[in-house]
Design goal:
Helix content: 25-40%
Distance between the termini: 36 Å
Order of helices and strands: HHHEEEEEHHEHEE
Radius of gyration: 17 Å
Structural class: alpha/beta
Low-confidence stretches: 1-7
Largest sheet: 7 strands, mixed, barrel
Strand order of the largest sheet: 2-3-4-5-6-7-8
Strand content: 15-25%
Mean pLDDT: 85
Number of helices: 6
Length: 240
């Protein structure tokens, strides 16, 4: 049974993400190229997913945000830790990690929530690589799926109340930060990182003019880190 078949009540975009994770890197590369050539297919999945969440029942007026203290990324991204980005002005401070938005029904996980280190801090949702063979492509799909699923009734307000302490406000918009591992020697995932940037650019520009999609997406940023010798510094890769 596939990963997608193990879960019920998935949005179409979340189901696509889970299917993508079962592909080899070559398979992911082929799929990403196909979507770049025909982006209307994934755009339609994004819109349909947003409509699924809008029509979903339950959770109204309450938060489904929970922090899982057993998350494996807590040793890197934990509350109050400052992360410094080399090569761009997008350093940030973590507020929470291991955030579960699935309410026990789906595959939703946000690895960390953070704010930019600016006079007017901006909210960030972070998604990190979790295995040697994971590429930027499924992480991008996971980040977009999670952002859409946060549009459930009461979820944004719960996130703002429980984690962001009021900075999200009534018109939420978030940066999505994808964190990849640095690879020693030849990095077989690098072409997918570049293709993912191109796909992110197409998706963001199309959604900006799509009236059926709420303006909850700000920038998509890709960073790299060394998980073996992590000292709080990340390297800027791209931003769209």
């Amino acid at each position: 049974m596939s990963a997608a078949e193990n879960h019920r009540d998935l949005t179409v975009l979340r189901a696509l993400e889970l299917r993508t994770r079962e592909l080899s890197l070559d398979g992911q590369r082929v799929e990403c190229v196909d979507l770049l050539e025909s982006p209307e297919f994934v755009i339609e999945d994004l819109i349909r997913s947003a409509e699924q969440i809008e029509k979903s029942e339950g959770h109204a007026g309450s938060s489904i945000v929970r922090c899982n203290q057993d998350s494996g990324n807590n040793r890197f991204f934990y509350p109050s830790r400052d992360l410094f980005v080399q090569g761009d002005r997008c350093s940030f401070t973590c507020l929470a990690s291991g955030i579960d938005i699935s309410d026990g029904e789906g595959a939703g996980r946000i690895d960390f929530a953070a704010v930019t280190c600016e006079s007017k801090p901006f909210p960030i949702l972070g998604f990190t690589q979790t295995s040697e063979m994971e590429s930027a492509y499924p992480i991008l799909l996971r980040s977009l799926s999670s952002l859409i699923e946060l549009a459930r009734p009461g979820c944004f307000s719960g996130l703002d109340r429980d984690i962001y302490r009021g900075i999200v406000g009534e018109t939420p918009a978030f940066d999505l930060t994808l964190v990849l591992w640095d690879e020693e020697g030849i990095d077989s995932r690098r072409p997918l990182c570049e293709l993912t940037r191109d796909l992110a650019k197409v998706l963001k520009s199309t959604l900006a003019s799509e009236s059926r999609f709420a303006p909850i997406l700000n920038d998509i940023v890709c960073l790299r880190m060394n998980p073996k010798r992590f000292d709080g510094r990340l390297r800027f890769v791209w931003s769209v």
